[in-house]
Amino acid sequence: MTQANSVAATFDLLGDRLTLSILRQAFVDRARRFSQWSDRTAAPPAVLTARLAALVDAGVLVRAPRAGSADRYEYRLTELGLGTWEILVCVWAWQREWTPEWTLLPELVHTECGHRGPPVLLCRSCGRTVTTHDTDVELDPDALWHLTSGRRRSMRVADPARGDARFDEIMEAIGDRWSAAVTGLALAGVRRFSDFRAALNLSPTTLTERLTRLVEAGILQRAEAGGREYRLTHRGRALFGVFAFLLAWSEHAHPEAPEPGLRIRHKECGAVLLPGLRCRGCEVVLGRRDVRFEQGPASPGQSAATPSEP
Length: 310
Hints:
Elements: H1 6-14, H2 17-28, H3 34-41, H4 45-57, E1 61-65, E2 73-77, H5 79-82, H6 85-98, E3 107-110, E4 120-123, E5 135-139, H7 141-148, H8 168-174, H9 177-187, H10 193-200, H11 204-216, E6 220-222, E7 230-232, H12 234-237, H13 240-253, E8 262-266, E9 275-278, E10 291-294
Antiparallel strand pairs: 1-2, 3-10, 4-9, 5-8, 6-7
Helix pairs in contact: 1-13, 6-13, 9-11
């Protein structure tokens, strides 16, 4: 039986507004119980149950008896689940800069130096800072078919409870396989409608709809009025870190899967990009235990938590 494409499986699992909310609250609010996520997300019980089950099946969460109660359970992040922290930091950083909901977000703090705010992306192979301009995205055309084939679950769930970020705007770029593929191709330098269509083997109607949505979301822009060329905006290019860590995590989550045919290469050192995060304040490479999230004044009454102690 053919194994699923690891990148496609990652987007199916993590490219979901409710799933990101579940993980965010596991890290920041130390949520472990069904009732905690239910209160914070306002998701229908059946939908929340399905998302938690999918995270357990993927090895991101583990379901275990609650202390002192044999018939009640809680969910804890596994090592694989803890490995999503860099993805969440990049999602947080993008929302912090590019969406009006930033006031709902907790603040990221480097514990050692006290710097508050987003870190920078680096190449772990050589230690240098990287941006989209410093990398090449290599694509195997056969891999794109596997990336975009298959059905997606519906992401239309109830609005999150008051005081939580919605993730709506970033979902335009990563919440659908087609949209993720188009955004990824744009990051790889594809611009022309015909080139998007050839790479994805997508109908003109479907491709037009996805491109239009990404333009309306401010992620792409038409190169000229009425033209058939699309370029990433600054807002779209800022998604690079999210995609880089999603690709890196997919390899960690699916070590036995076939080569996905999609990789980012750092031009300067020639290595396939293994991304990391560096503090802007003291330039130290950050680990999960080195940072914490602190709730801001927009979300009172919630305690601070660190990603190392979900």
